[in-house]
């Protein structure tokens, strides 16, 4: 592992899952890593080294992001991985406007905020074609599922932002969209923490059983299809290190299968299948 990296990358959302695995994957590729999370204590078990910095960064706060930029502008930062985010679960009929706003603030505005603060450093430091900006989107940024409308909406937005940014920054800075399917992360556990009193709101409605089915189905999918976050991170790191990185990186067999099905079958068939899977078909 390189003691004095010649290039550094900022990674948001390193407390667990793909973000945590990316810390190791990028260091193995010779990058210095600025590992960030909203709470510094969630990074306490990451190792020390000359090629890693652990720092608290709240993507919802201009002050927090600006402070990190000021603290580490002496490093040659040429890359950014926007990984921080969470998934808001629930039927749109019972999702509050504030919950939808919170989802967008973190997954979309937070990503945009971090990008805009670090982009000047990347422009200043990177040789032509060397800069990298990675948006961790989702396969749900191209297909929607019941009870995942809020999350899908945020990831659709991430995909659109990434595609526009790629055209705007080319050819000097490469923008990569990562679209994972199911990955073994804490995202599903986090979803149950952020939905507040949603189970009470849907009690006695058609969604009460469907919500329970969603969680059990999600667990089944994770066990059958979910990829290991370390393998996912290695695939992302390989794309970042490529001289000509791919525009999109699909991760997991489910992501490939679902996107192929959506292209091949009529939308009415896809919607009927999704309704059946999630218990919405009468």
Topology (SSEs and partners):
Blueprint: E1 8-11, H1 17-28, E2 32-37, E3 52-56, H2 62-71, E4 77-82, H3 97-125, E5 131-136, H4 149-169, E6 173-180, H5 187-194, H6 198-202, H7 207-225, H8 229-241, E7 248-251, H9 253-264, H10 267-277
Parallel strand pairs: 1-2, 1-4, 2-3, 4-5, 5-6, 6-7
Quick synopsis:
It is built from ten helices and seven strands. It has helices spanning 17-28, 62-71, 97-125, 149-169, 187-194, 198-202, 207-225, 229-241, 253-264, 267-277; strands spanning 8-11, 32-37, 52-56, 77-82, 131-136, 173-180, 248-251. It starts with 7 loop residues before the first strand and ends in a 5-residue tail after the last helix.
Explain how this protein is built.
The chain has 10 helices and 7 strands. The chain is α/β, with parallel strands linked by helices and 282 residues long. It has a single domain (8-277), classed as 3-Layer(aba) Sandwich (Rossmann fold), CATH 3.40.50.720. A 7-stranded parallel beta sheet has the order 3-2-1-4-5-6-7, with helices on both faces. The protein starts with 7 loop residues before the first strand and ends in a 5-residue tail after the last helix. 40% of the residues are buried.
